[in-house]
Amino acid sequence: MADIDSYIEDLKKKSEERFEQFKIVDISSIKEISNDAYLEKPTWLGGDKKFVCLFIDLDKSSKISFKKHPKTMAKIYDYFTQNIVDILNHPTFGADYIDIKGDGAFGIFEGDKASYKALYCAITFKTLFEQSIRDKFSDEEDQLSCKFGIHKDKLLVRKIGKRGHGNYNEVWAGRLVNNAAKLANQAKDIPQDIAYPLSLPILISEQVHSDFEKNKEFGFYHCCTGNGQPLPNQIEMFKEVNDFSDETLGDKFYYTRVIWCKNCADNYINLI
Ligand SMILES: [Zn+2]
């Protein structure tokens, strides 16, 4: 056993050096976090540029997971998380960065169309979830359920790990990812849609909603019911919830329960 005192002294010295060298550089693309140059330096990627995060995870309040065998749970994760990751890799509206987190996954989107792409990924997964994934793993007592949150904010991130060891982890110090997850959790306070009680809400923050207000052609309106049947007229995509207050998310958010109908999919996805 090596001398633990000198080992700890060495760690203290290295941390002090890191503390002195700490800096934040402006990020221009989320892809920069894969740059090895940042791996061992205390250099974080941040700045004023805003990114959009779509966070999707299993709703554990259904308690379905506690009743199942590990093998069944593994099947659920495989079906659930793999599909999220596949959709986040969509060639047209996919994310620019994808990660798995706990019972779900998130994607980070950049560029002018970030908010729109994030919503299209969410609607795509919701459509698949409600048409096939849910029924495959639900029984009469318990419905498999999931949560969606889309938020837009600055980010502050660094990859922590050791060069050449392969196991790095991004550390998200900014609020982007956490707030997208926090928003997803608000789904429990949204009343069920009476016509489509199993239709899940996709929650978006005010910042994301304002992108749809600015460019309404990307999905401010839609024409489908909660089960994807076209309506005769276009209606607003998002409903407002304003009995809400959060220090960083603001005092309202919005949600939609839309799943793709052919009209909407053709109209919106072709704009990307
Ligand atoms: Zn439609």
What does this structure look like?
- By secondary structure, the chain is α+β, with helices and mostly antiparallel strands.
- The chain has a single domain, classed as Alpha-Beta Plaits (2-Layer Sandwich), CATH 3.30.70.
- 34% of the residues lie in helices and 25% in strands.
- The strands form four sheets. A seven-stranded mixed β-sheet has the order 4-5-3-6-9-13-12.
- A hairpin with an 8-residue loop joins strand 7 and strand 8.
- Helix 3 packs antiparallel against helix 4.
- It is globular and about 75 Å long.
- The mean pLDDT is 88.
- Zinc ion is lined by residues 222-224, 230, 261, 263-264.
Short description:
The protein has helices at residues 4-21, 64-67, 70-88, 114-137, 176-185, 206-214, 262-269, and strands at residues 23-26, 43-46, 50-58, 97-101, 104-109, 146-154, 157-160, 169-172, 202-205, 221-224, 230-236, 239-241, 253-256.
